[in-house]
Amino acid sequence: MTITRINPEVLHATPGYHHVTVVAAGRTAYLAGQCPLGPDGALVGAGDIDAQVDQVVSNALVALAAVEAGPERVVRTVIYVVSDDGAMLAGVWRRLLASPLAPAFTTASTLVGVAQLGFPGQLVELDVTASLPG
User: Fold this and answer.
1) Which keywords belong to this entry (predicted)?
2) 70-91 confidence digits (pLDDT tens)
Protein backbone atom coordinates (compact mmCIF):
# COMPACT_ATOMS: atom_id res chain seq x y z
CA MET A 1 0.00 0.00 0.00
CA THR A 2 1.38 3.36 -1.01
CA ILE A 3 1.41 6.37 1.31
CA THR A 4 1.91 9.68 -0.49
CA ARG A 5 2.90 12.80 1.43
CA ILE A 6 2.42 16.19 -0.24
CA ASN A 7 3.38 19.78 0.49
CA PRO A 8 1.52 21.98 -2.04
CA GLU A 9 3.86 24.69 -3.34
CA VAL A 10 1.53 27.55 -2.39
CA LEU A 11 1.32 26.52 1.29
CA HIS A 12 3.91 27.51 3.89
CA ALA A 13 7.02 25.43 4.46
CA THR A 14 6.82 23.01 7.38
CA PRO A 15 9.36 21.92 10.00
CA GLY A 16 9.33 18.33 8.74
CA TYR A 17 5.70 17.27 8.50
CA HIS A 18 3.57 17.28 5.33
CA HIS A 19 0.33 19.19 4.79
CA VAL A 20 -1.42 16.27 3.10
CA THR A 21 -1.14 12.49 3.41
CA VAL A 22 -2.95 10.25 0.92
CA VAL A 23 -3.53 6.52 1.40
CA ALA A 24 -5.45 4.16 -0.86
CA ALA A 25 -8.36 2.46 0.89
CA GLY A 26 -7.23 -0.38 3.09
CA ARG A 27 -6.74 -1.42 6.70
CA THR A 28 -6.32 1.45 9.15
CA ALA A 29 -5.42 1.46 12.85
CA TYR A 30 -6.64 4.23 15.13
CA LEU A 31 -4.62 4.23 18.34
CA ALA A 32 -6.15 5.53 21.53
CA GLY A 33 -4.38 8.61 22.84
CA GLN A 34 -1.00 7.39 24.03
CA CYS A 35 -0.36 8.73 27.53
CA PRO A 36 2.79 8.77 29.68
CA LEU A 37 1.68 5.79 31.75
CA GLY A 38 3.87 2.82 32.57
CA PRO A 39 2.72 -0.81 32.37
CA ASP A 40 1.43 -0.52 35.95
CA GLY A 41 -0.86 2.36 34.93
CA ALA A 42 1.08 4.93 36.95
CA LEU A 43 2.15 8.28 35.51
CA VAL A 44 5.80 8.29 34.41
CA GLY A 45 7.88 11.45 34.83
CA ALA A 46 5.68 13.68 36.98
CA GLY A 47 6.70 17.24 36.16
CA ASP A 48 9.28 16.07 33.57
CA ILE A 49 8.07 16.74 30.02
CA ASP A 50 11.02 14.89 28.43
CA ALA A 51 10.38 11.72 30.47
CA GLN A 52 6.70 11.90 29.56
CA VAL A 53 7.45 12.32 25.85
CA ASP A 54 9.79 9.32 26.01
CA GLN A 55 7.09 7.19 27.66
CA VAL A 56 4.48 8.26 25.09
CA VAL A 57 6.92 7.31 22.31
CA SER A 58 7.56 3.93 23.92
CA ASN A 59 3.84 3.26 24.33
CA ALA A 60 3.06 4.29 20.73
CA LEU A 61 5.77 1.98 19.37
CA VAL A 62 4.32 -0.95 21.37
CA ALA A 63 0.79 -0.18 20.13
CA LEU A 64 1.98 0.05 16.51
CA ALA A 65 3.91 -3.21 16.84
CA ALA A 66 0.71 -4.88 18.08
CA VAL A 67 -0.79 -4.28 14.62
CA GLU A 68 2.46 -5.15 12.81
CA ALA A 69 3.20 -1.53 11.90
CA GLY A 70 6.09 0.81 12.52
CA PRO A 71 6.38 4.59 12.54
CA GLU A 72 6.70 4.69 8.76
CA ARG A 73 3.06 3.47 8.49
CA VAL A 74 1.71 6.44 10.45
CA VAL A 75 -0.46 8.77 8.35
CA ARG A 76 -1.65 11.27 10.99
CA THR A 77 -0.57 12.45 14.43
CA VAL A 78 -1.95 14.96 16.89
CA ILE A 79 0.31 15.93 19.79
CA TYR A 80 -1.30 17.51 22.85
CA VAL A 81 0.90 19.40 25.31
CA VAL A 82 -0.28 21.06 28.53
CA SER A 83 1.27 24.45 27.83
CA ASP A 84 0.76 27.71 26.02
CA ASP A 85 4.53 28.31 25.86
CA GLY A 86 5.87 28.17 22.31
CA ALA A 87 9.32 27.12 23.48
CA MET A 88 7.89 24.14 25.39
CA LEU A 89 5.78 23.09 22.41
CA ALA A 90 8.81 23.37 20.11
CA GLY A 91 10.88 21.34 22.60
CA VAL A 92 8.33 18.53 22.54
CA TRP A 93 8.37 18.58 18.73
CA ARG A 94 12.18 18.40 18.66
CA ARG A 95 12.24 15.52 21.17
CA LEU A 96 9.70 13.58 19.08
CA LEU A 97 11.79 14.16 15.94
CA ALA A 98 14.85 12.80 17.77
CA SER A 99 13.00 9.69 18.98
CA PRO A 100 12.64 6.22 17.42
CA LEU A 101 9.10 7.31 16.45
CA ALA A 102 10.46 10.21 14.32
CA PRO A 103 9.30 8.85 10.91
CA ALA A 104 5.70 9.15 12.16
CA PHE A 105 6.05 12.93 12.24
CA THR A 106 6.89 13.35 8.54
CA THR A 107 3.19 12.85 7.82
CA ALA A 108 0.18 15.07 8.50
CA SER A 109 0.83 16.28 12.05
CA THR A 110 -0.72 18.78 14.43
CA LEU A 111 0.80 20.12 17.65
CA VAL A 112 -1.67 21.63 20.12
CA GLY A 113 -1.22 23.41 23.43
CA VAL A 114 -4.06 22.54 25.82
CA ALA A 115 -5.14 23.48 29.34
CA GLN A 116 -5.40 19.95 30.75
CA LEU A 117 -5.24 16.26 29.85
CA GLY A 118 -6.94 13.23 31.38
CA PHE A 119 -4.58 12.16 34.17
CA PRO A 120 -3.34 14.33 37.05
CA GLY A 121 0.17 15.53 36.19
CA GLN A 122 -0.06 14.43 32.55
CA LEU A 123 1.76 16.89 30.27
CA VAL A 124 1.62 15.19 26.87
CA GLU A 125 -0.56 12.82 24.83
CA LEU A 126 -0.20 11.48 21.30
CA ASP A 127 -3.01 10.52 18.91
CA VAL A 128 -1.89 8.25 16.05
CA THR A 129 -3.52 6.87 12.90
CA ALA A 130 -1.66 4.28 10.83
CA SER A 131 -2.21 2.65 7.46
CA LEU A 132 -1.59 -1.06 7.88
CA PRO A 133 0.16 -3.33 5.42
CA GLY A 134 -2.13 -5.53 3.32
Assistant:
1) Hydrolase
2) 999 999 999 999 999 999 999 9
